[in-house]
Amino acid sequence: MEDLKGYKWKNLSDKGKYVEAVSTSLITIQLKSSDFLFISSYFKELLNDYDIVEVFLNKYNKISIPNQSIDFINTLLSFNGVERYNNHFYVIACVFQEIYITSIENDSVTNQPLVLSFQDESKDLRLLLDIIRDWMEGDRLKTNSISFKGKKTRTINNFFIVNDMFNMLIEKYGLTLTNFDTIKEKLISNTNNIKFEEQDEYWKYLFCRSLLEFKTGNNNVHKISNSDIKFVGQFLSIIQTPINKSPFELFPAIELSNLITLDDIKYLRTFIKRPKSFFV
Question: Is pTM, for the whole model, over 0.85?
């Protein structure tokens, strides 16, 4: 791990830009993968088998965090009776922060044609499958042409060629009327369904859900208390992740209890329960 580098904490300025924390305020912690097996496996299970901690530990062998942020994490976990996980949450704080900031910084590539094509794959695949199903269930003579757009629009009108094209797609996807719904669901689940311009908010949503499950031991978002949401919101604020996209700064004199308001709690409750805006 000698060739790995350290992760340095970022602070969010009042202009909405992330800047590295001042070195004189930082505490550096050496990382060893074996020390974080619990938290690594825990979040891997919650995030659809994606091991965000392992990915982070494969890049960094130390983290540098402001003393104030460490104090906040210690106080937050102690207040909620889980202070035995202090060291784990120092790492999780950096992992979440790096992912969130990276997703924001990658925003500039989301409008590239190929990227947009990848983003919209699930939508177009769903449309194609609906067309195939109509063809399989109905009068095939009614689907009598297929058009392609290139330098100009060209159309295949021959029934036998159109028939061959549908049959090739049906064979490729392994479709029958009996298994259609099952295969369709499987095919679409293997495509991206996230709006790339919403990546930062989607990751924040996953952070919230995983933190809530850690706090409550269940994944029922309809049975969460204000105290549970407060835990999540305070942690988001500690790691410099805006709760409602508004820039903010952590001033030296601020206290943990001031890191979240009642309006923030209301916003987070709605945010956690209604994530559909992230999806294509």
Answer: no
